[in-house]
């Protein structure tokens, strides 16, 4: 497969960019020609940001799996679509060819159909990083069901909330998952999430760890049995087929829940055609993928990065995508490097938090692994600091592999601002320039555009790109309020950014009440709600503080009036509560007990002050005269941990 729209020089980037702004419809129509359509579009784009309403490739019909799988079968049926590296390096690895993937996805689609799943139904997927997770996602797409993958680190309560919000009737899970030295009991978490649930009709369970689990008659079935049955239905005389459901360009493809500044995560909805075209375009251009390259994205498919750059983007390009079940530090901190060596990985895409954590182990684990196959490195999820950038460049890329610093979000579906590997200039800690089709602007508090260079402000986008979120599931008004109402006619990202003298963007972090802990988005309100669920807690306030490895740590100020003989134990109780309500990823790193919180006379918590104290700044706290009780600040300062 060659990629006629792969940008090869800086000049080509400039002209593609110019064209994409002047004639977005012509620009994207040309790219969209390179996919499988049942019917082409009537209109490339219709939009307004007031409702908001965005429709790309309006009137077109397709099934995304035909562009991801079927079209490659004739030319690369025996080429690897996925390479799977298990958690335990001594276990058998798996290579899934496009032919095999086709068969498995047809089987899953048939299995779903046999179990009553229809187009438009929501299927919740809660699995470890096994190839079956990718088959499940694609099987849903094949029959037009809307998948909603939930990361394995979320608790039963979080799953229950998401199931309810999505009104999901079907679940695909595993008995358990391996993660480093741990076994995670996924099915048992699902069982807890389903207590009292009357909506879920079917739970399909894939065997991974063969942990003892409960299987309820009439509700729970084994994946293996169902797949075997489906195999006989989809394969006749050696020919495999399962007719893909015809979808409208704007039919939902998936829901992915993400945190915002309010207490409840929202279900970001992406649709079929725009998401397909944009993830493909950005995959091919940002990473400069060449046929036969091995692409290793270390994310979990429970996050958007895994959706777009392990599954959808790479497959639509006929690429080989490496899927890893484990963690970077087990059995030792050389795990990534041994995988790179073992499979001769060309593109490595990971998160700054992983780089920082591996840096902490020194160069020992890097040595002894041949990393010469690497041509491109990438980062995503949070701002990368200068030190981590240089370590990655020197010790992993050996100064010959460009680093792409890719800025984007669950809501954007694909990469919006990034250098293109080796094609456009890079600058440490800068995401640099927008991809074609993306029009970033910086605005001040009042929404006034900040023009020129060497400026900073709130980052917004002026016009839609093909994979912008369409709505938040079940609540369109929430989507409008969250993203399109802060500034008129703009998509507001929630991030702050600066633009240097060359017009390069550097993302400086969230400007709303959202934390970014190890590249995971967590709303402060969400954590506060969870802490407040503890029986002895009166009130709490949560802020972020700089953390050497995680980027940001979670600092909680808690007013507690329960029995309180042992502070350490109370802290542990609170951590347990948060783990129950959200999951271990949201556990505060520090909990300080306080007798009051700094509030204005109107009762608003002055987070600015709490943030400064958490950061270790105790002198210049700014104006505290508007506080109801200024004395509380001294107490908090003195009790800082
Ligand atoms: C942050 C992940 C700096 C940002 C794809 C954004 C980044 C949030 C970068 C989205 C980057 C992501 N540099 N910050 N290269 N990439 N972010 O939805 O704050 O999990 O708003 O999507 O991560 O996180 P999400």
List keywords for this structure.
single chain; 641 residues; alpha/beta; Rossmann fold; 5-stranded parallel β-sheet; 19 helices; binds 5'-O-[(S)-ethoxy(hydroxy)phosphoryl]adenosine
**Shape by Cα distribution:** globular
The N- to C-terminal Cα distance equals 57 Å
Overall pLDDT confidence: 96
CATH architecture of the largest domain: 3-Layer(aba) Sandwich
Order of strands, main sheet, comes to 5-4-19-18-20-21-22
Helix content class? 25-40%
Strand content: 15-25%
CATH superfamily of the largest domain: ANL, N-terminal domain
Instruction: Please give the CATH class of the largest domain.
Output: Alpha Beta
What are the segments in which pLDDT stays under 50 over at least 5 consecutive residues?
none
Beta strands, count: 32
- Biggest β-sheet: count, sense, barrel? 7 strands, mixed
Structural domains: how many:
3
Which structural class is indicated by helix and strand composition?
Answer: alpha/beta
- Could you tell me which ligands this complex binds, including any ions or cofactors? 5'-O-[(S)-ethoxy(hydroxy)phosphoryl]adenosine
Rg: 24 Å
**CATH T-level topology of the largest domain:** Rossmann fold
DSSP helical segment count: 19
